[in-house]
Specification:
Largest sheet: 8 strands, parallel
CATH class: Alpha Beta
Strand content: 5-15%
Oligomer: single chain
Distance between the termini: 37 Å
Mean pLDDT: 95
Structural class: mainly beta
Order of helices and strands: EEEEEEEHE
Shape: globular
Strand order of the largest sheet: 1-2-3-4-5-6-7-8
Radius of gyration: 17 Å
CATH topology: Leucine-rich repeat, LRR (right-handed beta-alpha superhelix)
CATH architecture: Alpha-Beta Horseshoe
Number of domains: 1
């Protein structure tokens, strides 16, 4: 574990750790991570990059297609990096407490995703493609200045929890009742 060490950089030689299954670089002072991080194809359990100073990620991280848990919360991202949407094995994605203004339509590629945490960003809407995330169980949108949510969310067959607390800018979508009637808990 390399968390909470005041790290300002990660050497490219990290790619030599070819059997690394999990990596915690959280709670540091990183402003970048090396391209070589994407070469760690044995990284399957988790990658924590939360609580740093990151605003971009190298495209090479998109090669981590077997990674299941990715946390980039508490950074300075204004947009969700496209490489994240190529991490096809993700089950949980945490991108809370950033400055995200939008989510790319390619988020719809994350077909195994069960939890999507986007709390405390600057999101005003989500793309319709969120509705293709058929395995999604939890969607946390607390504290965003949302003005629109696509009706495709109501079609998510496994959605159990939709968290809209601290969102006072969103007119209540008519389809919320549909979600609640089928047992999804909607926090408002």
């Amino acid at each position: 574990m390399l968390a909470e060490n005041g790290l300002r950089e990660v050497p490219a030689q990290i790619a030599r750790l070819t059997r690394l299954g999990m990596l915690d670089l959280g709670h540091n002072e990183l402003t970048a991570v090396p391209e070589a991080l994407g070469d760690l194809d044995s990284l399957t359990d988790f990658l924590y990059l939360h609580d740093n100073r990151l605003s971009t990620l190298p495209a090479s991280l998109g090669k981590l297609t077997r990674l299941r848990y990715f946390n980039i919360s508490e950074n300075a991202f204004e947009e969700l990096p496209e490489c994240v949407c190529r991490m096809a094995g993700l089950i949980e994605l945490r991108a809370s407490d950033n400055r995200l203004r939008s989510i790319p339509r390619s988020v719809g590629r994350l077909l195994r995703l069960r939890e999507l945490h986007l709390r405390n960003n600057r999101l005003t809407s989500l793309p319709d493609e969120v509705g293709t995330l058929g395995e999604l169980r939890q969607l946390d949108l607390r504290g965003n200045p949302l003005t629109y949510l696509p009706g495709t969310i109501a079609k998510l067959p496994r959605l159990e929890k939709l968290d809209l607390r601290w969102v006072d800018t969103l007119p209540a979508p008519a389809w919320i009742a549909e979600l609640e009637n089928r047992g999804c808990v909607v926090y408002r």
